[in-house]
Write a structure and sequence with these properties.
heterodimer, A: about 170 residues, mainly alpha, two-stranded antiparallel sheet, B: about 375 residues, alpha+beta, Creatine Kinase, Chain A, domain 2, 8-stranded antiparallel sheet, 14 helices, binds zinc ion
Chain lengths: ~170, ~375
């Protein structure tokens, strides 16, 4: 069996993974396995999902000009496709387009559930409060309670400004 | 600080006990964390990696939980030191290959181990003997909370803890247990079990994580998904699955003894024969034979022998641990001879295995 990446050398590394009803199979040569720099079979299979191995091989290497680049760390889309990893935390913002689809193939959901650092717990609360205020505002407007709506708008503006402030701790 | 003086002797490690340790060798919870404003280790320039290392090391020095711990940059450790940490499952093989700008932190009890600048800026893990996922989580959760006061984590309310690889984003958690499953292997049920565990979205790996080979019938079960599920939900799920696997393994052993005692007796007797008499033995064969002998101890075929005998040998026969017992650098062939010598001498006081005890006598 030939390696599914280089399609030249004999495949000696065989990986199968079943997640839910998805079956992923990979047959790689020693060298391509090493070149990917991905050391566990799980990360491996998923990294190749990222690569979109079913896609046309010439996709890589094209679209060099005007390619998306992370302003924080200089990481590019092509590098992400090659490595299956990001350059810095900011990359999640930079490459947010299509990220959700990708996350769907890897995870149970696409939104974080679980531990939140104390520094962000305030933010979470503010967000929830913001949502509530906006619902209340819509109701006030519908009921033509303009005095209440004005108060709510002020509060919303205030909250939004606080949420936008960088480095909130 | 000298790592070799810091590490507990293998004999002490082998004597650590925990619930269900007949089958569950260890439980582990790992968290991946990164610092805001810094490139991930794989993409960062050396200068940035050093800066991250220094920030984390400074935070480590601040938190009470880690007081008196071992904390060192990897360029200060020898290749042998790093290999020792790998053989004790404290750091990954990939991490052992790194040097300056990466580091390792280990507490006295060896229950907490941090890798600085592995794939993520910080990978912290809590380790416990036997099945103790909840305790491991509680311990690492508390340490993480202490550290977050000193380190500005990269976190997004939507995506959670941001990690170098999107497969870890969210909780950044990996919950795993190392299982000894000779019964399921001997009864040829292991593949079916591995497949059904995979279907639940859990990964099953061999002794050292990568590859698929399960040396010594040791398997590692862990979660793969980290986004969209809380730590608690995941812990409960894993705990349930592990308890089921334990039950399957116990059933497989009981059935083997009942239906095919000669086969079991034969495997264990031959394993003892090789271990007690070999003069040259590679680590792979030694691990597989020790696994069978461990099963024999569990089944009561070696009266008076404690499981810590096989567990200690399991550690001691690995290359770096063997090297530790000798001054001069050992070649692979010499290691195979010294390994056999060590095992023979340890088994000198162990008599030949008796027949398996009837079912019921097999549990302690
Ligand atoms: Zn190839
Ligand atoms: Zn970036």
């Amino acid at each position: 069996m030939k390696c599914c990446v280089c399609k030249e050398r004999e495949a000696t590394v065989h990986l199968t993974q079943i997640v839910g009803d998805k079956v992923q199979k990979l047959d790689l040569c020693e060298e391509c396995a090493r070149n990917k720099g991905i050391n566990d079979p799980t990360g491996f299979a998923l990294a190749d999902l990222l690569l979109g191995m079913s896609g046309s091989p010439q996709e890589e290497g094209t679209a060099k000009a005007g390619e998306l680049r992370c302003p924080q760390c200089g990481f590019t889309q092509a590098e992400f496709k090659k490595l299956g990893r990001f350059g810095c935390p900011e990359c999640y913002q930079t490459f947010s387009e299509g990220l959700e689809e990708l996350l769907k193939t890897m995870h149970k959901g696409t939104r974080h559930v679980g531990k939140v650092p104390a520094a962000y717990r305030g933010v979470e609360d503010m967000k929830k409060r913001l949502e509530r205020l906006q619902q209340e505002l819509a109701r006030a407007v519908r009921d033509e309670n303009f005095e209440r709506a004005a108060v709510l708008r002020d509060e919303i503006k205030h909250l939004q400004a606080r949420l936008a402030a960088p480095g909130e701790r | 600080m000298d790592l070799r003086e810091f590490l507990a002797p293998a004999a002490d490690v082998a004597r650590r006990t925990g619930p269900q340790d007949r089958i569950v060798l260890s439980s582990r919870v790992r968290l991946a964390r990164n610092l805001k404003g810094f490139a991930f280790p794989g993409w960062a320039k050396k200068q940035d990696r050093i800066q991250v290392y220094e920030k984390v090391a400074a935070a480590v020095a601040e938190v009470p939980t880690l007081s008196g711990c071992f904390c060192e940059s990897l360029d200060k450790l020898s290749a042998l030191d790093k290999q020792l940490l790998v053989e004790r499952h404290l750091i990954s093989r990939e991490h052992a290959a790194r040097s300056g700008g990466s580091g390792v932190v280990l507490n006295r009890q060896e229950t907490l181990c941090l890798m600085i600048n592995e794939e993520d800026h910080l990978r912290m893990q809590s380790l416990r003997p036997g099945l103790q996922l909840r305790q491991a989580w509680a311990e690492i959760d508390a340490l993480d909370t202490e550290l977050e006061a000193h380190l500005p984590y990269a976190f997004s309310p939507e995506l959670g803890y941001l990690t170098a690889c999107p497969t870890n984003v969210g909780t950044g958690i990996r919950v795993s247990a190392m299982l000894h499953l000779p019964g399921l292997v001997l009864s040829e049920q292991i593949n079916a079990i591995v497949q059904s565990v995979n279907k639940l979205g859990l990964a099953v790996r061999g002794l050292y994580g990568e590859g698929t080979e399960a040396l010594g019938n040791v398997f590692q079960v862990s979660n793969q998904m980290t986004l969209g599920e809380s730590e608690q939900t995941l812990l409960e799920k894993l705990d349930k699955v592990l308890r089921q696997i334990i039950e399957f393994e116990e059933n497989a052993r009981a059935t083997l003894i009942e239906k095919n005692p000669k086969m079991v007796y034969n495997h264990i007797g031959r394993a003892y024969g090789i271990l007690a008499n070999a003069h040259i033995i590679a680590s792979k064969e030694a691990m597989n034979m020790l696994s069978l002998m461990r099963l024999g101890v569990d089944l009561g075929m070696f009266p008076g022998v404690d499981r810590s005998l096989t567990d200690e040998l399991f550690l001691l026969i690995q290359p770096a641990h063997l090297q530790l017992l000798h001054q001069e650098k050992l070649q692979a062939e010499e290691r195979d001879i010294i390994r056999a010598d060590l095992i023979r001498s340890r088994l000198r006081s162990v008599s030949r295995p008796g027949p398996p005890l009837p079912a019921g006598g097999s549990t302690e």
